[in-house]
């Protein structure tokens, strides 16, 4: 009698500890599924949900920059490159204010430079790339890179 009860208890505990999917990732998956099915109104709703979720995410989170870039690419793919740039600009400003890692900020700034370059505004592209280089130069190298032998 004790063995079946213990087995049932362990099963319930194992199921309860299953990793929960992040709401941003779930909305992204729902967006792509709706796009594939041609349900553009649903896809638009999911894209806006992703935007709202990104606005609530901590800018210091290691996944923040990647999620901002994903959302910007979605907007760009939907023909709204200005909106995608706005997402990246907002994310970059939030990351800087939050003191996010230099790598995250460099990534966001380089993405902004790429967006401006695609829109044929080379002056702004260069300005953002210069900012990315400045941040990269100010970012200390990790200890393992310092101790790695030079080739």
Measured distance between first and last alpha carbons: 65 Å
Query: In percent, how much strand structure appears in the residues?
Result: under 5%
Q: What's the number of extended β-strand segments? A: 0
> How do the helices and strands follow one another from N- to C-terminus?
HHHHHHHH
Helix content: over 70%
Q: Ranges with pLDDT <50 over ≥5 residues? A: 143-148
Shape: flat
**Sheet of most strands:** none
What does this structure look like?
It is built from eight helices and no strands. It is mainly alpha-helical. Helix 4 packs antiparallel against helix 5 (about 80-100). The longest helix is centred in the middle third of the chain and has 18 residues, at about 80-100. The chain is flat and about 70 Å long. The model is unreliable at about 145-150 (pLDDT under 50).
Topology, pairings included?
Blueprint (H helix, E strand, L loop, with lengths): L1 H15 L6 H15 L2 H17 L7 H14 L3 H18 L3 H17 L3 H17 L4 H5 L4
Helix pairs in contact: 2-3, 3-4, 4-5, 4-6, 5-6, 6-7
What descriptors fit this protein?
8 helices; mainly alpha; 151 residues
Structure, briefly:
With about 150 residues, the chain is mainly α. It has helices at about 1-15, 25-35, 40-55, 65-75, 80-100, 100-120, 120-140, 145.
């Amino acid at each position: 009698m004790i063995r079946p009860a213990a087995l049932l208890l362990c099963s319930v505990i194992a199921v309860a500890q299953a990793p929960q999917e992040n709401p941003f990732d779930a909305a992204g998956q729902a967006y792509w599924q709706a796009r594939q099915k041609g349900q553009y109104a649903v896809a638009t709703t999911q894209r806006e949900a992703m935007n709202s979720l990104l606005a609530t995410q901590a800018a210091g989170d290691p996944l923040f920059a990647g999620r901002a870039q994903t959302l910007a690419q979605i907007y760009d793919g939907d023909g709204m490159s200005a909106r995608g740039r706005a997402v990246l600009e907002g994310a970059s400003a939030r990351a800087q204010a939050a003191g996010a890692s230099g790598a995250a900020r460099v990534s966001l700034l380089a993405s902004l430079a790429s967006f401006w370059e695609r829109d044929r505004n080379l002056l702004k592209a260069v300005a953002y790339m210069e900012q990315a280089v400045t941040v990269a130069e100010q970012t200390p190298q990790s200890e393992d890179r310092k101790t790695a032998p030079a080739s």
